[in-house]
TrEMBL record:
NCBIfam families xref list: ABC_phnC
A GO-annotated cellular component: plasma membrane
Annotated segments matching region Disordered: 247-276
Compartment(s) where it occurs, according to its Swiss-Prot or TrEMBL record: Cell inner membrane
ABC transporter domain boundaries: 2-246
Keyword Transmembrane helix: no
Record's protein name: Phosphonates import ATP-binding protein PhnC
Keyword Translocase: yes
UniProt xrefs under Pfam families: ABC_tran
Keywords, alphabetical: ATP-binding, Cell inner membrane, Cell membrane, Membrane, Nucleotide-binding, Translocase, Transport
GO function terms (MF aspect): ABC-type phosphonate transporter activity; ATP binding; ATP hydrolysis activity
Top-level taxon: Bacteria
Topology in membrane: Peripheral membrane protein
Protein source organism: Pseudohongiella spirulinae
């Protein structure tokens, strides 16, 4: 469970990016963070994982006060936080498997990771996650051979390799076509519910948020102006968040089932460190 209490961020310029944010995200809940550009959505996410230092307030994850820790203790706390990026953040010259296994870098020693000698359990988990995101047949492809949707699926698997307690997701569909966007949102939400992960998704697409998430928080000028169920996003509420606009929302019913297949026979080879 994530709890933010009185979190504010004022930059050196004097600009107030976040103003007294207090919220709780329980395990298994997927929360969408919406609001206009400059509302503070990215700042909030980065205050949670301490990429940005809050000016005031407290962030507690799974009982640990993240705002108090430093050095190695901060690195340990960050192991509990998986991050999924808008621009995928893959090492494109590496294989899909190597990119997914990089989610274990905080757990294995430098030389084991450098020599690509990950524990058997890590490789088995990576294969399981690749099956779950529908990429088990692409484990040996380079990152630069993938489509945008496939890269985002690799990013999801990599984040889950950390065995996190919380997922922070920054605009996961901004570079994707509408159908792929819905598939990615569906996948993220299903995985969070399956694994009882709390999640915060920074997203501009209000229709996607309404379709998939459990809860929506709206920010405007750094302050929370809405916190409720997606069904409560009435035109009046959306106007309070974004300003005047025609808030007619289209619906979408596309569906996508990811196939699973076994991959145990490949594990022995990869344990030996000879995967591409």
């Amino acid at each position: 469970m994530l709890t933010m209490t009185g979190v504010s961020k004022r930059y050196d310029t004097g600009d107030l990016a976040l103003n007294d944010i207090t919220l709780t995200v329980p395990a298994g809940q997927v929360m969408a963070l919406i609001g206009p550009s400059g509302a503070g959505k990215s700042t909030l996410i980065r205050c949670v994982n301490r990429l940005i230092e809050p000016s005031a307030g407290k962030v507690v994850l799974d009982g640990d006060d993240i705002t108090r820790v430093r050095g190695s203790a901060l690195r340990l706390s960050r192991r509990k936080i998986g991050m999924i990026f808008q621009n995928y953040a893959l090492v494109e010259r590496l294989s899909v498997m190597e990119n997914v296994l990089s989610g274990r870098l905080a757990y294995v020693g430098f030389w084991r990771s450098y020599l690509r000698r990950y524990p058997r359990a890590d490789i088995q988990q990576a294969f399981h996650l690749l099956e779950r995101v529908g990429l088990e047949s692409m484990f040996d492809k380079r990152g630069d051979e993938l489509s945008g949707g496939q890269k985002q699926r690799v990013g999801i698997a990599r984040a889950l390799m950390q065995n996190p307690k919380l997922l922070l997701v920054d605009e996961p569909t901004a570079s994707l076509d509408p159908k792929t966007s819905r598939q990615i949102m569906r996948l993220i939400c299903e995985l969070c519910r399956e694994q009882k992960l709390a999640a915060i998704i920074n997203i501009h697409d209000v229709a996607l948020a309404q379709q998939f998430v459990d809860r929506v928080v709206g920010l405007r000028a750094g302050s929370m102006v809405f916190d409720g169920h997606p069904s409560e996003l009435s035109p009046a509420v959306l106007t309070s968040i974004y300003g005047e606009e025609d808030w007619s929302v289209p619906t979408d019913t596309d569906n996508n089932d990811d196939d699973d297949s076994g991959t145990d026979k490949l594990v022995d080879t990869l344990v030996a460190g000879s995967h591409p």
